Amino acid sequence: MKTSVSIVLFLTLSLSTFRFALAQEDGDVISQRGVLQVAPLFQRWSLDSSTVSQSSAVLYVYQPLSRSASVSLRGSFGSTSGDVTTLSGLSDVQLAGNYYFESANLVFALGVGIPSGKKQLPFSQFRTSAVIAENIFRFQMPNFGSGFNLSPSVMWALPVGEDVVFGLGAGFQYRGEYKPIENGGTLKPGNEFLGTVGVEIRTSETSSIALDVVYTRYGRDKLNGSEVFASGDRVRATAQFKASFERNELLVVGSFRSKGKAEAGFGGTFTPLQQRLTPNQGEVLAAYRASFSDRFATQFILEGRFFEKTFAFFSGYSIIGIGAVPEIVLATDVVMPLRLRYFYGTKEGGQALKGIEAGLGLIVRY
Predict the structure, then answer these.
(1) Angle at 178 between CA 222 and CA 85, to 5 degrees
(2) d(Cα 139, Cα 20) in Å, to the nearest integer?
(3) Selection from 273, 276, 171, 264 nearest residue 214 by Cα
(4) pLDDT by residue (tens digit) across 224-264?
(5) What are the C-alpha distances in Å from 70 to residues 66, 340, 357?
(6) C-alpha to C-alpha distances, 365 to 20, 29, 76, 117, 337, nearest whole angstrom
(7) Signed CA dihedral, 7, 8, 9, 12: sign only
(8) Which of 12, 74, 132, 293 is deepest in the core (most CB within 10 A)?
């Protein structure tokens, strides 16, 4: 039952802003193996004759402190170029800590965002940062710097019999102020409140299904101390099916995300926008991992992303993606994953959107 509990505790926060390493290969909620991962990645998207590309590298370190506690660190460097102003630099460093109360199936987590990334950008670079932040692209480094962030959260799992586990989670994210534009005003992003519920059902000895709903409420953004924008709350529902076939695995995931209409504020009065600023989005992903030997396996991926049509420029697209992630075992506990993916998107009356991803990483477990 420990594995089921760890899956639910992971699912309750897996689609939120609070991402922690809870579910690991050893089946423990707090993995007892350290991880060092380096993930360089090249991504390029084109729309007609215009392109935007990013080369980035992520460093991730996970360290267990005991059977009940762990810490992790994540940082990245990226460079964005193409038909946009070049933008390069470090991201904010993300620190996380977790503590597991096994007797109560509770996990307390604390995330800290250290404002070490690039901020106070010239306006031309700020426009570049707005492009790479678009969810449609999924850049590995979608933003560079912001203010100090603090995100405490708690997760609880309740086993019901041998085959069913329910999970509940709640979190809060404090978002500190910063100056995104050189010689511009001070922005204080709204704080975030998150609630989530999930369930995992084991359908056989080798398969399971899981359901997860995440609700996020956003506070109002402030510019120079005055409330100017409310982005609208968000709901995301996810369903997952997972099955094992001897040494191979199948994963199918479907999700739907809906965000409320944003409001613009002026003089203390807020007016709802006529359309959603962030389009509703549906996704379907199927991944099959085939193990060919003790030293080589490949994950084959097929996915679809579907965006509602709004007045936002990058909306109304339907994107199909295919890819493969070969994994080569270089030595005991040392894995080199490769990443190759291609995307093609269309929308009515619009130009085709094309994307590629290529990466070569390294994972060391100790």
Answers:
(1) 110
(2) 20
(3) 171
(4) 999 999 988 999 999 999 999 989 999 999 999 999 888 88
(5) 7, 32, 32
(6) 17, 16, 20, 28, 14
(7) positive
(8) 12
